[in-house]
Amino acid sequence: MNQKNSKDQYFSQFSLSHKKGALGLAAAASAFLILGACTQEAQNKISRGLQNWTGTNGVLDVLNNGKVMYRFINIDKLTTGTATGGSASRAYRYGYGVMDKNQNFKEDPGEKRVYFEISDYSTPYVFYENPLN
């Protein structure tokens, strides 16, 4: 009878560890299927999300000879351009912001939200959080 209890105990432990292994394998397979089921567009969005600098009140100063030529405020994110047919980064950034004509860090009447692009090669710029807010 002692030998039978020993066998029963062994098989119950084997069965339990086998079930745990099967559950782990099933969880891994499910995660793989979920990620694999993402469309190419969803995968691109994830990739772009990793490349974005996200904030709530960014400021972009475009410089020339050390002087601020243009200032954009209220920028939510600055995005790195990506190739249309691939995943390679392009040499420019883009976003939407209010063109701060008088450079006072505030949105004044007549200042509008615009789309902008800046080159990594030829445009000296500084991007930072608005110090007044």
Question: In words, what does this structure look like?
Answer:
This protein is α+β, with helices and mostly antiparallel strands and 133 residues long. The chain folds into two domains: 2-37; 53-129, no CATH class. The chain contains two helices and five strands, in the order H-H-E-E-E-E-E. The chain has a five-stranded antiparallel beta sheet with strand order 4-3-2-1-5. It is globular. It starts with a helix and ends with a strand.
Write the layout of secondary structure elements.
Blueprint: H1 2-36, H2 40-51, E1 53-64, E2 67-82, E3 89-99, E4 113-119, E5 125-129
Antiparallel strand pairs: 1-2, 1-5, 2-3, 3-4
Large-scale geometry: globular
Rg from alpha-carbon coordinates:
28 Å
Low-confidence stretches: 10-20
Order of helices and strands: HHEEEEE
The number of domains is: 2
Structural class call reads alpha+beta
Number of strands: 5
* Annotation field: number of helices: 2
Short overview:
It contains 2 helices and 5 strands; from the N terminus they run ααβββββ. It is α+β, with helices and mostly antiparallel strands.
Keywords:
alpha+beta; 133 residues
